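cron nightly-structures :: item 1 of 1
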Amino acid sequence: MSSRPRVLVTGGNGQLGRDVRDVLAGVMPDGGVLPAGRGAGDIDILSTDIDTLDVVNRTAVGEAFESFRPNVVIHGGAFTAVDACESEPDTAFAVNAMGTRHVAEASRRVGAHILYVSTDYVFDGTLDRPYVEWDATNPQSVYGRSKLGGEYEVAAVSGGDATVVRTAWVSGAHGANMVKTVLRLAAGPGDGPLRFVDDQHGTPTFTADLASAIVGLALDRRPGTFHVTNQGETSWFGFARATLAAAGLDPERVEPIATGDLDPPRPAPRPANSRLDNAALRLSGLALLPEWTESLNRLVEVLPAVAERG
């Protein structure tokens, strides 16, 4: 068997998963920076998604792991449709909690280190400061509870050989996200105002940066929980304005609105405070991600070329 690292990725076709695959392959993600020392040919990769490995199927997960024998697992596969989780709680828990149990169990059986991607939704958003890794969790949505269930499963099954990465407000070159939504609305018919909530605050995160950090933590087998976001904070209103400005469009088109005034209201409650302090990274002496505005500008610049490639 090859002595090179063998990494199995779940959710490999998602917006984060695609950048994780690029980093593992030594390819710079669109708008991103590769971790030092990682290069093409250094790693054997098995990228999976729901069409090739349904994490709800315990038998299939076990067989895939026994066949590939990974020594590192990056588990990003999840049911992330936050509002749909409210009406489909069994699906949310089957994928995000039980599915994570199956992945953690299979990882333990082959001796692999598992990194699990979690979310700011495990918090209730009521603190008046950014959340550190050791703050008490109190999810208010089905999505948040199911993802916290995944954190419990990783801790219970892995025997301590696990990493949990919580992140928030994720955008990237692939898949649907806030940046693409703002640009699509701005390009639509008419020049009326675009309204975004100004009473939810968070730490925007960009997959090209996040993927590099995740790969570094996973390959180094760093145990414990890490908050990994870009630096700085804003509201969705501020994020939308900055996106238009980065694209050379008029940010004044964006107007603030309160969450309570959304029509129709969103089924799932959102944390008013999604700010994550990257305390564990900082205290470990590990590099922090760039300022969110810097990475936003980089993403907006590459999006036309990504769309052209399809």
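cron nightly-structures :: done
Confidence is low (pLDDT under 50) at residues 36-40.
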